[in-house]
Recover the amino acids of this structure.
């Protein structure tokens, strides 16, 4: 069986999970990797004693929230295929990519799920992959997401091209793989953010573990009992047993000790450990890692009504815009042929959906756009998801709101 036949069989198995589960290798391209492979890609034990991997990092609520915010924000953006021709931009309807990108890239995933999964992989592992299934006419029929831990990228020096090994299949050409890279230093693969911030996330996991242990122990710290007389082993065991009996049932009230026995605690208090401050600092560090405003992670300590609005705009401008650019350029380069790009066809996300203000602000902006002849009525209606009407494509002048092709009378009786 040739390589392309094996890839076709893998794609068919992806479309039928029940059939795929009966094959010799039951794991799919989106299944998590083995632990040893996770360690190979940056997972490991931190100085705080926590094992941090992209999957275990999601146990930190701030990491989970930041990943979801970025993934869901990207997946929520409308995506369309356009053509720029003769100075005008028109939306393309008759193209095989329109349905794949807008509705469903494969029989198992919606477009929202596909982009959400891809962006989550970028946030946690720095790379997003999808196998491209085509037909004999050179058209793309499906995009199948692949787990980054099961993909290996290599550079073929003979052909000056990237090749991919995906879940046992080797030497897959780059034209058959959609590969969106995060921040990269070699142009081959993106850097894994979780691996780079392993110590920060390990500290957050350690703080959560400490808090859980404190709650489990009822905030009773480890203690040492000091007795006045010299005690042998049997007597020490007796004291120990009595202390456990006294503290095992707190409903009977506080334990009482006598006979010159002294109690010494071995753990500093939560206040001395600055437990709350440590948790709050972890949120700030994780927000900095993902470039997400702290108020979006429910950290409102320094938030005000004025700076929240500004931070939300900065989130779109400085956080989402680079990700949108990465996706757009990779989609255009990989999914469109050179001939299609020469014809002016391109793929674009609509970020206006995230910048929509309240209805009063929107309609005031539309009014200014119409009066300045930047927008016409149908363009404003399209942005409000309303149907166009006849005559709405005309631009109106601000003096008397007549169409621009109607002559105007100026002083002296001459037409303008």
């Amino acid at each position: 069986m040739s390589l392309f036949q094996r890839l076709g069989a893998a794609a068919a198995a992806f479309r039928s999970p029940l059939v795929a589960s009966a094959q010799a290798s039951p794991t799919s391209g989106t299944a998590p990797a083995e632990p040893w492979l996770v360690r190979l890609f940056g997972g490991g034990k931190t100085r705080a004693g926590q094992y941090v991997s992209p999957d275990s990092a999601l146990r930190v609520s701030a990491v989970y929230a930041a990943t979801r915010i970025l993934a869901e924000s990207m997946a929520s953006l409308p995506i369309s295929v356009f053509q720029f021709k003769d100075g005008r931009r028109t939306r393309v309807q008759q193209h095989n990519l329109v349905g794949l990108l807008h509705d469903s890239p494969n029989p198992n995933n919606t477009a929202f799920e596909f982009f959400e999964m891809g962006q989550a992989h970028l946030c946690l592992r720095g790379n997003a992959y999808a196998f491209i299934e085509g037909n004999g006419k050179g058209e793309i029929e499906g995009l199948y997401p692949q787990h980054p831990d099961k993909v290996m990228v290599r550079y073929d020096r003979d052909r000056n091209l990237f090749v991919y090994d995906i879940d046992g299949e080797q030497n897959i050409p780059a034209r058959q793989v959609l590969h969106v890279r995060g921040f990269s230093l070699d142009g081959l693969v993106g850097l894994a953010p979780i691996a780079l911030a392993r110590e920060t996330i390990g500290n957050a996991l350690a703080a959560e573990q400490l808090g859980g242990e404190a709650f489990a122990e009822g905030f009773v710290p480890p203690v040492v009992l000091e007795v006045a007389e010299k005690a042998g082993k049997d007597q020490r065991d007796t004291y120990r047993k009595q202390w456990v009996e006294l503290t095992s049932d707190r409903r009977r009230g506080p334990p009482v000790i006598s006979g010159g026995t002294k109690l010494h605690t071995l753990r500093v208090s939560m206040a001395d450990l600055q437990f709350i401050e440590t948790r709050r600092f972890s949120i700030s560090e994780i927000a900095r890692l993902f470039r997400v405003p702290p108020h979006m992670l429910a950290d409102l300590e320094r938030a005000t009504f004025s700076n929240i609005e500004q931070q939300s705009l900065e989130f779109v401008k400085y956080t989402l815009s680079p990700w949108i650019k990465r996706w757009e350029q990779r989609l255009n380069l990989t999914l469109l042929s050179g001939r299609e790009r020469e014809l002016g066809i391109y793929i674009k996300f609509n970020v206006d959906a995230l910048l929509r203000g309240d209805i009063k602000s929107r309609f005031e902006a539309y009014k200014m756009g119409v009066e300045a002849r930047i927008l016409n009525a149908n363009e404003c209606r399209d942005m409000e998801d309303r149907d166009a009407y006849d005559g709405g494509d005309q631009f109106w002048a601000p003096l008397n709101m007549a169409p621009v092709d109607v002559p105007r009378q100026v002083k002296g009786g001459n037409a303008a």
Remarks:
- Residues 7 and 47 are 43 Å apart (CA to CA).
- The mean pLDDT is 79.
